[in-house]
Specification:
Distance between the termini: 33 Å
Shape: globular
CATH topology: Nucleotidyltransferase, domain 5
Largest sheet: 5 strands, mixed
Order of helices and strands: HEHEEHEEH
Radius of gyration: 18 Å
Strand content: 15-25%
Number of strands: 5
CATH architecture: 2-Layer Sandwich
Helix content: 25-40%
Oligomer: single chain
Number of domains: 1
Length: 155
Amino acid sequence: MKRHQKVLHSYQTIREALLDYSRASWEKEEGIYETDEALYDGEWGNLRKHVKKRLHEKGKAKRGRGAKARKQPVFSIYKRGEQQVYLELIDDFTSDTLEPIIEEVIEEESEIFSDTWTGYNGLAGLGYFHSCVSHFPQVRRRGAHKRNRRLLGTV
């Protein structure tokens, strides 16, 4: 096994341990929750040139939500007050994927705060009190988006 493969294997082992711990320590109960979804992988600027070239050749060189072909989607639920986090590796961010997970780990009539992603639109119909939070309502200038995320502590 090459050195970089050993490092990747180590990271994968750590990720699996985090997922197992978040599932084992989670209890389904009423409360106030925050949900979010993210794509995880290395930053585009940190990728080696031959990796970027291979991704371009395969048509997987997109960024942001378009990069889902080369990045791992992760769904997280944070339980306020108890500072517990539930993590789930998912295939996509559709409501068909997110809603069953929410129903499995959050008790009905709980309050859920999420961003304005359309995958959360059906939560009120499932018996949850759902509130949307717009992360960047006043961002209009180019470059301000990332700076504001740093100020909010979300980067």
